[in-house]
């Protein structure tokens, strides 16, 4: 009888420990998830172009503003780095995509 009683106490003690650990783990996960997921989503939306409005400028303006030849801009488009749109005989460049590409892949310049 003594052995059975001790075993049931041991079992209850283990159940309480498991329950305690489970509750701590659940609380920790709820806190981590509730704080990190909204931050991760917010950062992803900032970095993506989904929510940003596309701005287009003429290819000549982009060439002057970013000190890049028009041939380079056409090559960027051919390789899929930027979007070009044409209307009424004019070609326009996506400013957001061009700035992003130049920021991530700077053009080497001669220092002199």
Strand content: 5-15%
Quaternary structure of the protein: single chain
Separation of the first and last Cα atoms: 95 Å
SS-derived structural category: mainly alpha
SSE string, helix = H, strand = E? HEHHEEH
Overall number of domains: 2
Stretches where pLDDT falls below 50 for ≥5 residues?
1-5
Please state the CA-atom Rg, rounded to the nearest Å: 30 Å
Q: What percent of residues adopt helix (DSSP H or I)?
A: 55-70%
Number of helices: 4
Question: Could you report the average pLDDT, rounded to the nearest whole number?
Answer: 81
Largest sheet: 3 strands, antiparallel
What is the molecular shape?
Answer: elongated
The main sheet orders its strands as: 1-3-2
Organism: Chryseolinea lacunae
InterPro entries: DNA-bd_dom_put_sf, MerR-type_HTH_dom
Pfam families: MerR
Keywords: DNA-binding
Tell me what the structure shows.
GO terms for molecular function: DNA binding. Keywords: DNA-binding. Residues 1-5 have low confidence and may be disordered. Strands 1-3-2 form a three-stranded antiparallel beta sheet. It is elongated and about 80 Å long. The chain has 112 residues and is mainly alpha-helical. The longest helix has 46 residues, at 2-47. The protein is built from four helices and three strands; from the N terminus they run H-E-H-H-E-E-H. The chain has two domains: 1-48; 56-104.
């Amino acid at each position: 009888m003594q052995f059975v009683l001790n075993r049931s106490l041991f079992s209850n003690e283990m159940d309480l420990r498991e329950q305690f650990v489970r509750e701590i783990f659940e609380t920790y996960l709820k806190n981590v998830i509730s704080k990190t997921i909204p931050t991760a989503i917010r950062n992803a939306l900032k970095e993506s172009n989904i929510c940003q409005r596309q701005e287009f400028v003429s290819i000549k303006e982009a060439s002057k503003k970013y000190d890049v030849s028009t041939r380079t801009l056409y090559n960027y488009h051919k390789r899929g780095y930027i979007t070009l749109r044409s209307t009424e005989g004019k070609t326009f460049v996506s400013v957001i995509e061009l700035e992003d590409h130049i920021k991530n892949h700077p053009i080497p310049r001669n220092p002199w």
